[in-house]
Amino acid sequence: MTLAAPVASSPPVRTEVRGRVLLVTIDLPPVNALGLGVRQGLAGATEQLATDPSLAAMLIVGAGGNFVGGADIREFGKPRQPPFVRDICNRLEASPKLVVAAIQGAALGGGLELALSAHYRLVLEDARIGLPEVLLGLLPGSGGTQRMPRLVGVPVALELMLSGRHVGAHEAVQIGLADRLGEGMDASTAGLAYVEELLDANAPRRPSRYATAVRCDAQDQAAISAARDAQRARNPLLLSPHLIVDAVEATLHQPFDAGMVLEQQLFQQCIDSPQRRGLIYAFFAERQAAKVPEANQGVARAVNEVGVVGGGTMGAAIAVAALNAGLRVTLVERDEPSLQRGLANVGKVYTGLVSKGRMTQADQNALMSRLSGFVDYAALGFADLVIEAAFEDMAVKKAVFAELDRVCKPGAVLATNTSYLDIDEIAATTSRPQDVIGLHFFAPAHIMRLLEVVVPRRAGADVVATAFAFGRALKKVAVRAGVCDGFIGNRILSVYRRAADYMIEDGASPYEIDDAIRGFGYPMGPLQVSDLSGGDIGWATRKRQAATRDPRQRYVQVADRIAERGWFGQKTGRGWYLYPKGARAGEPDPEVLAIVQKERSRAGIVARDFTAGEIERRYLAAMVNEGANVVHEGIALRPLDVDVVFVHGFGFPRFRGGPMFYADTVGLGQILSDIETFAKDDPHFWHPSPLLLRLVAQGRDFSSLNAASV
Ligand code: T1G
Fold first, then answer.
1. Which domains are delineated in the chain?
2. Which of 459, 311, 487 has the alpha carbon at shortest distance from 389?
């Protein structure tokens, strides 16, 4: 069978002579990333500008709604070929003819660096520009650390590079990143008019390297010191933020070219760092997670009207998330007082934002105008999708779904926010199981980006596709999960939390556990998290599971002893830690240590020491092994789905990519060896996952399963 010759796609960079202006259009979907073809095209255009005497200027624009989304980050870690972005930027900046960039949509990373090497920049209303390299474990490696401070000053440049945030059109003009706010939505038209205006005015070329916003004074030096101190406090384990400060500091003391040499050295350190690999993996993984089989099999149904049943903490926050996405929301509660409380819970979120100046009262009024509340389920008759967020009890949920089945229109998607109940069982109580799905939000639901889309056996492909489209609309990171106790996240959490409990009973103090896990990169240790979310929640789960708990399973009672005293954590002033006068930061509690010692004695255990390294290895081995089971059983489609859940929902340090990615960096053979060593003490708990055994036997790693096409 002869394969048809690949159809040459249109060149990624087009040039057109428009009178005295060379119009250069970068056109490489989806984001005009600066891959080799684009770089070659830009180099060619720069040559054309230099050698064509009829040309007086160049205008650079992007096609497809973006300017340039940055370097092609898939190239990192592979041999990279010239021409490099930084050389193209230097040539454009040095051009004796005028170079202008007209920005529509994203101009990020290398895309903004390209624009900064132009002599003038025009932005359209929808522009979003920035240097987000720090989010990928990188730093601007094409002159951004040297040009941006010279254009906007050291303090502003540091804030933008260290936050990685996007700047809108108006702010860009206001801080000096852009010179003109263009009219309309066509970059070429607005850009060409601006170039002609500049040429007619005989506007000078303005190489950014000679801009003078760097003052080299005490204020600049103070900004550098403050940024360095802040990064030491906030991101002690990260590499690139500290190197960004070093690169920017060079603008105070070194000429531009020397600063560029330093930037290249620091950029290479970032490229070589495992943190760049972990962060770029995480970037792609959260996008890959949306690629589920059903997305190709089913067409998402339109969702404009959303119903939420239950106005408690979760229901209200889900309503806020839907309102923020521009949808209309109908909140239903069982009686008037509950409904009023629910509506007030929604209003409270916005009132808080207004009081902090992050929203105007008019914005709040506009958002709340799309919210209505009823105690009659009939109000849900128009809803395209209803999310049940009622009490976590199967009987309650079945009663709610019976009502939804009765009142909702045909084709409405019926979703439950349950965090562990059997959704197959819920679906089976309706006449439309194909329309039932799980949408497991994580508290606070209007802030946490993770959304587990839990797919019961009989769910229609279009219902799954609808759930993912709804997640996108709410700006969530959606991950497909199968039905089991705890789905992906909570199921694995319960296992590695037990590993921590075992270490506590065997000799590690709770506070050593938290210290070790924070040392790995978590913002909080597991016991701090328990105190934050409430020890009563875990206690209720353990009591629920007691009847069916495997008798071979080692059960540690320390957490029960603490919960029995009503020590639920921050909300009661003490849990694993003491919170004097409601302090947020807990203090170790000698009474907790006494409880631990008493439980050790009851269990006949002589405490032994644990190093931070062993705590980390046991905690992560348990996490990875259960993650392998979850993939093996098909609860998660791929290891990357487990990684996305833990990075976005459970505080796993993003620079390590996720538990499964991290396990690959350690080596699955080492992980298995650890588990086999730990199994000597407890073969029931430390039971190697069949998937882990298979991959080690085959000499493969988890990443080899991520490529599985869906
Ligand atoms: N390289 C390669 N692929 C990219 C990419 C990039 N820079 N950006 C996006 N993609 C892919 C993405 O994986 C997805 O693929 C598709 O494009 C659509 O992305 C030299 C070193 C631009 C705001 O950090 O923030 O420049 O899933 O779903 O919601 O100093 O993409 O379709 O197969 O996100 O419209 C710096 C990263 C790089 C920007 C568009 N730049 N990208 O958002 O689409 S390092 C960034 C984004 C650098 C220089 C340094 C967003 C976006 P697929 P999407 P979107």
1. 13-272 (3.90.226.10), 303-477 (3.40.50.720), 489-706 (1.10.1040.50)
2. 311
